Amino acid sequence: MAEPSNYSRRNRPQHQPMYDTGGRMQPRDKELEEAVLGALMLEKDAYTTVCDILKPESFYEPANQRVYEAIQSLGAAQQPIDMLTVTEQLRLNGTLDEVGGPVFISELTSRVASGAHVEYHARIVAQKYLARELISFASAIEAKAFDESNDVDDLLQEAEGKLFEISQRNVKKDVTQIDPVIGQAIEQIQAAANRTSGLSGLESGFHDLDKLTSGWQNSDLIIIAARPAMGKTAFVLSMAKNMAINYNTPVAIFSLEMSNLQLVNRLISNTCELEGEKIKSGRLSQLEWGQLMSRVKHLYSAPLYIDDTPSLSIFELRTKARRLVREHQVKFIIIDYLQLMNASGMKFGSREQEVSMISRSLKQLAKELNIPIVALSQLNRSVESRTDGKRPQLSDLRESGAIEQDADIVCFIHRPEYYLRSDQDANGNDIRGLAEFIVAKHRSGSVDDVKLRFRARFARFENWDEDTEFLQGTVGSKLNAPDGAATVSGVSLSGGNADFLASPGEEPPPF
What SS3 class is residue 193? Predict the structure, then answer.
């Protein structure tokens, strides 16, 4: 004989606290929860409609949570879901008496006339659960903020991490019918056809690389990895300079390793073709001062944005990146480098899990902002022990295989001259200045090696086939330009710069 209805209600588990610390009622709707559960047991395909929307903790009442757990188990096993099967599953789970017995299950179905609106009701239940999560989160942070023994910076990181975790758990994207996506694809193809370069993405300034990738594509995560001294930072700075100055593409650089002044000094050396040591010491000849003053003007007003926050967290990066895209229309982000980032405020069992979370978050950020993101990465020391020319491979990525999985493109920089300590390889080929840019993974294209030229004196990468007979050693001392104007490596200097060069006793001009 079935238990009476009031008995089933008395024996159900107690629900969560109904009021918050301020005496306000927690967001919940008991009738809607029961309506959803009843509809799931009445409508044949109702569970497939709501399974991505609801989880057991979405329900406020513990009894309703147990019932949904039983429905979830049946759905996962592709078993029929009705009043009898749910009752039996609850019995197998050992929670039938806990929810109030078979009477409670029959009450759920008797209160629902139709399951036609189950998805709409389920979304309301999910929203109320999210509101409760935010209330709980805010209350916990408030309590810790009142405790003066807590470090405020650490608390901010924890709050950001927890909020990010809540948002990621509850983000759902609706499916899209293919027609509008086809329209977008055709528009992209037409835009690429109208460009003189024929590229669909952002130009890097390295022509062979751009042909291979069709330019850096929106929403792609690009990993560029190398061992120390291969020139990772020099490469991305050369690329950023090309993109910002030559193509007027707004670029943001997040430098976790070098200060903004160090980066700008490298950019000056790169752009002005002056050795880094001379830039740091200021020991420039008169001609070099003129070269500096003439060429540095190209960097002024360039759409380059540098952030040198050390130990940047993925949550800080998201906030800053969104602001840069919104306020400065940044279309390309560079991170130097991935292993120096952290996910403060979240707990991980190992550093590898943390790096996995960071790389996954970078991919999500690239999709959210719809721009390419380049992240530099270190390689394992195992490269050094190999005898095959020490060419890097995907298994050499440091700390996490998730980097390879999350990235759309994985590239390596390899300079055989560095390891061979010779001007020629085993076949007698001249390898002076040769840098191999190895595209080892390309999700939407082919893989190949691209030859680039590395000019160590200026920490600069160039196209391999460019005719770059630049000044070597000391800069020439003769000024042969007519009418008092000087010409330095093809750049005409006149007016103030020429006057300065003609007056060797004067102090270097300020800049």
Answer: helix
- Domain 213-258+308-411 carries which CATH code? 3.40.50.300
- Own/partner contacts of 88-92, CB < 8 Å, gap of 24 or more, are 90/66
- Indicate the class that CATH gives domain 5-150: mainly alpha
Of 319, 313, 330, 316, nearest to 253 by C-alpha is 330
Residue located via tokens 């903020």: 145
What residues does each domain of the chain span? 5-150, 213-258+308-411
394 C-beta neighbours (distance < 10 Å), count = 15
257 catalytic residue (yes or no): yes
Tell me the C-alpha distance between 359 and 48, whole Å: 31
Q: Are 101 and 125 in contact (CB under 8 A)?
A: no
The structure tokens listed for 186 are 């055709």
DSSP character for 243?
I
Q: Are 269 and 275 in contact (CB under 8 A)?
A: yes
Residue whose pair of structure tokens reads 């299950």 in the numeric block: 105
Tell whether pTM > 0.70: no
If you average pLDDT over residues 124-131, what whole number do you get? Answer: 89
Q: In which element (H, E) is residue 435 found?
A: strand 434-442
Long-range contacts of 134-139 (CB under 8 A, 24+ apart): 134/166, 135/20, 135/26, 135/27, 137/162, 137/163, 137/166, 139/20, 139/21
Positive or negative torsion for Cα 393, 398, 399, 404: negative
Q: Annotated catalytic residue: which of 3, 257, 352, 404?
A: 257
pLDDT in tens, 291-322: 888 888 888 888 989 888 887 888 788 888 88
Q: Which DSSP string corresponds to 348-388?
A: -SSHHHHHHHHHHHHHHHHHHHTS-EEEEEEB-THHHH-SS
190: how many CB neighbours lie within 10 A of its CB?
9
CA neighbor of 307 nearest in space, from 370, 266, 255, 361: 255
Q: What gap in Å lies between CA 483 and CA 19, rounded to an integer?
A: 86
Please tell me the distance from the alpha carbon of residue 13 to that of residue 97, in angstroms, as a whole number.
10
Taking 3-state DSSP, the helix, strand and coil percentages for the chain, each rounded to the nearest 5, stand at 50, 15, 35
Distance of CA 350 to the CA centre of its chain: 20
Tokens of 84: 């009898």
Look up residue 393 and give its two tokens: 């491979």
Residues 355-382 have pLDDT tens digits of 888 888 888 889 888 999 999 988 777 7
Q: Which of 306, 313, 287 is nearest to 475 (CA)?
A: 287
Structure tokens at 94: 């050992």
